[in-house]
Amino acid sequence: MKVTIERNSLLKSLAHVQSVVERRNTIPILSNVMFEAEGNEVALTATDLDIAIVDRTGANVVDAGSTTIPAHTLFDIVRKLPDGSEVDLTLEDGERLTVKAGRSRFTLACLDREEFPVMNEGDLPHRFAIAAEELKRLIDKARFAISTEETRYYLNGIYLHVADTEDGPRLRAVATDGHRLAQVEQEVPEGASGIPGIIIPRKTVAEVRKLIDEFEGAVEIALSDTKIRFSFNGAVITSKLIDGTFPDYSRVIPKGNDKELQMDCRLMAEAVDRVSTISSDKTRSVKFSLADDLLTLSVNSPDSGTATEELSAAYTADPMDIGFNSRYLLDILAQVEGETVILQLADASAPTVLSDTIDEAALYVLMPMRV
Amino acid sequence: MAETLSDSSVINPVQTQTLIGHEKAERQFLDSFNSDRVHHAWLITGPRGVGKATLAWRIAKFLLTQDTNATADTGLFGETLETDARSLDTDPANPIVQRILSGGHGNIRHICRTENTSTGKLRKDIVIDDIRSLISFFGQTSAESGWRIAIIDAADEMNVSASNAILKLLEEPPAKSIILMLAHSPGKLLPTIISRCRRLHLSPLSLNSVQAVLAGRYPTISNEDLQLLSQLAIGSPGKAITIYEGEGLELYHEVLKLFQSMPAYNIAALHALAGKLGQAKADAKYHLFFEFAIGFIERIIRFNTTQDKQFCFTQGEESLFLQLFANSRVDQWMDLWEKMIERKNRADSVNLDRKQVILNFAASTAQTAKGI
């Protein structure tokens, strides 16, 4: 194999794939990136056995061939090369790869590409395209609620499915950790109407999200009930899915919450952030006291003191008190696009529904805390 | 605790192609596979070095190379015809096998003791985080089509929380998954784990089988060494290999020399030996020394009570046994045997000075030989 690549395009390609390679790896082949040169491009593949990312970039291929090389080492070398240099990669005897740029020269140990893991995607019968902006919205508004608890592994991802609603079928992304839930929906893209409900693992969500910013245009998604593939313009992520059943989340979204609080989202977020400074415990609870057009936030910590703040808000129902985890609440408020956030409450022990005045297709549920 | 055999770099069960002497266990697995009702959890038990890990990896390679894409043969009425695999052998040139060997196969997870990142040392147990990685492994769809396999090497090294964490998996594994658990001392496992597994016991090998393994591995080994090694290994080829690679034969001759000098042993020579074995880096040799020494006492007793020559491993041992026994009684040697095992275990558990343990051993042996 003999290839010449422009340093910047090689660096960009490596940056796309290397994040999936774990820094500390006991298995040598998993810390490598597979390098395949053919035609006038090279394909770089990296995997952690759960996700595989392939990135293609144009190159001057003198001799076609393939090998695997340590991903982080190569990335660091290319990163430190001067901007605009041409990188020469030559595979010597199957065991050593020579990297040359200007007057620098490196030799790297290679491993046989036969040893490199294969992500066997099988048949991916469902294919559809989704605009990058739309996918970004689905991910951003749901991912903060993904659980990190390993025992309920089926919550460690975003549940993507087509739901039947009053407005007909909608493509819906749901994530929950049992304390909060995020549900985002949008129109069903063409070709997606028959997809099975799938759970996309957290790490895949993070990798896809990173690549959305790097590429323009629509993202093509192909999936079966065991694999999903995201094709960007030049890069492809293939991932395993979570093998489990997502719980029936619709039962935890309350329908009959009759008390409605409306107020400026930014003001609420700032005030919650301020008063929660006092709370020293892990849960960081904040008490909401609601009365006629008045919201009083209070935190009472036996160790460090108390904090209260009064805010004017639109509220006309009966006075009530309710407690929330301030961190969970701030996570949700950060996703609200509109100026005003709407909280629908029932009582101090029932879940609260939060919604956005601009993006009505996004909905959040927050469990209260006893305060 | 003694080093596990699979930790030593000399034996690599993943790479080992052949398994000698466990045809019956392989047959049991194949029968279960051929009947299309493979149990999801297998407990492979047997002494260290007997071939448990090799068997587990052979099963893994076999399962992953089964052609899963081929539609199952169906009979006239749509019933599944019995598949008939006759051997666990796989082709080492198969790309799937190559990926397994390099650790690059996504359908297999190997759980063993991991390094503690804060101290940089190998942990004494398999901890809950190691098992949790299995939960997420089985919680995701498989990377390549076909079986998902976990090998736990060894299950009796799991600590309490790790053992409890695996129960749920053992009870409700996902479809097409198999958990192979190895155990040197299955008695240490939770009864709830044992009851969920099908047991595959690997018995110690015959002398001939051990010799066959050794002869295949070391073509130049002398007949005499081969004989002695296979007798010292007590049916475990893995142990024979570690003895051979770890200069264990030389050590055995030193143990022999020490017994020959009894009861008037050379104190200076003993101090040199004990000092060498007492060092931290001689950990494996220290344990081996006691294994040989305690085994030797055992053979003194057995030979003198049965007069059976199979207890004499090397030339001259017969007269040595008789000579050591001349001034003493069986019960005295049995006392010594029991005391030595107990002392060694106690010294290990509270980390006593190893040199002293060896000096103490020699002194007690000398007394017994004198009949005191």
From TrEMBL, chain A:
Q: Does the keyword Transport apply?
A: no
Keywords, ordered alphabetically: Cytoplasm, DNA replication, DNA-binding, DNA-directed DNA polymerase, Nucleotidyltransferase, Transferase
Q: Where is this gene product found? A: Cytoplasm
Q: What region holds the DNA polymerase III beta sliding clamp C-terminal domain? A: 251-370
Pfam families for the chain: DNA_pol3_beta, DNA_pol3_beta_2, DNA_pol3_beta_3
Molecular function GO labels: 3'-5' exonuclease activity; DNA binding; DNA-directed DNA polymerase activity
Subunit text? Forms a ring-shaped head-to-tail homodimer around DNA.
| Function of the protein | Confers DNA tethering and processivity to DNA polymerases and other proteins. Acts as a clamp, forming a ring around DNA (a reaction catalyzed by the clamp-loading complex) which diffuses in an ATP-independent manner freely and bidirectionally along dsDNA. Initially characterized for its ability to contact the catalytic subunit of DNA polymerase III (Pol III), a complex, multichain enzyme responsible for most of the replicative synthesis in bacteria; Pol III exhibits 3'-5' exonuclease proofreading activity.
- Name recorded for this polypeptide: Beta sliding clamp
Organism in which the protein naturally occurs:
Kordiimonas sediminis
From TrEMBL, chain B:
Q: What biological process terms from GO does the record include?
A: DNA-templated DNA replication
Do you know which Pfam families this protein is assigned to?
A: DNA_pol3_delta2 (PF13177)
Highest taxon of source? Bacteria
- Entry-linked InterPro entries: DNA_Rep/Repair_Clamp_Loader, P-loop_NTPase
Q: Provide the Gene Ontology terms for cellular component.
A: DNA polymerase III complex
Protein name, per record: DNA polymerase III subunit delta
Origin organism of this chain?
A: Kordiimonas sediminis
Origin organism lineage:
Bacteria, Pseudomonadati, Pseudomonadota, Alphaproteobacteria, Kordiimonadales
